[in-house]
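Reviewer comment 2.1 asked that we show a complete input and output for one of the modelled complexes. We chose the phosphoric acid mono(formamide)ester case, as it is the one discussed in the main text.
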Amino acid sequence: LRGMNGRSFLKEIDFTPAELQELINLSIDLRDELETQKSGGATVTKYLHDKNVILLFSKTSTRTRLSFEFGADELGANTVYIDPNSSQFGKKESVADSAKVFAGMADGIEYRGFAQSDMEAMAENAVDTKGRKKPVWNGLTDEWHPTQMIADFMTLQEEFGHLGNDITLTFVGDGRNNVAHSLLVAGTMLGVNIHIVAPKELQPASDVIEIAEKYAKETGAKPMITSDVDEGVKGSNALYADVWVSMGEDNWEERLNLLGDYQINAEMMAKTGRKDTILMHCLPAYHDMNTKMAKEAHENFPGLVGEDGIEVTNEVFESAQGRQFEEAENRKHSIKAIMVATLGDVSMYPKA
Ligand code: CP
Ligand code: NVA
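Response of the prediction step:
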């Protein structure tokens, strides 16, 4: 664990497979420690005592913000949240200058942005005037969503008791988005079989597939990329959905046309051939028509959007197979683990 101290987490491959596994195990330990405190036991360890953490968001967020904010507080740190509109960032001031200012005042920086190159520039420039480098955590870019992965594979490990190539997680939908790319790489690094089921136009970028194939050789995971739903979902232990139009995109019509056959519904769940397949979703989800965006999509594209959800039906979302709120809860535990490992006083961790 000590080897991660001082390092940034910008994408999955910044850490080794063993380190990702350590983060998952630490997440579980931090969750258990918090549960002990809630039931009147010892208080949680203040691994981040008196640290200052900046939470910079260029896109909106619910889970990631709450996880960093409450997580940092539970660990003894102070946070300042910067929303997408009310600072100089991204308008009057460059990523590099902002990073230097942040590093001068804070010990760690969470950043949710657009281009991964901005994330890399943030980390490169997050150095204070005395030359001290500060860790940067990627809270989501157009390319990757690494903090989500620790929560998702923690959820899978809790469900199945372990991670390995006897487990298949199948992502269905926009296979080129941040979550699909991250699942393919993180899952393969952790030895889990990842299937990406997506139309040809929306299959993962070739450099991402190459990374996954390289790790697959090391870990024995068997990744699969296919446009064939029957082939892709067969035998899956988990089906994973994400929105078809990600933040920063505005191509509803194209996506609805391409992804019409890729909705996770009861029929698709049955095609796994298993009764115990779980549903995963990073959230937010369009599983019914009750949100503003889902209503707009339904009104604008009546022939392409039905009454029963977009990427996942309400029936499957609300079924006993849904694990999306476990994932959401695990975001806080796993984000705490990432902060502890990279910024915390790990000598306080009994297993360090
Ligand atoms: N899953 C996720 O990142 O959620 P938020 O966009 O609400 O942070
Ligand atoms: N792919 C989604 C993930 C949201 C957590 C997006 O980028 O909007």
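Residues 61-64, 140, 148, 282-283 surround phosphoric acid mono(formamide)ester (ligand 1) (CB under 6 Å). We note this here for comparison with the apo prediction described in Section 3.2.
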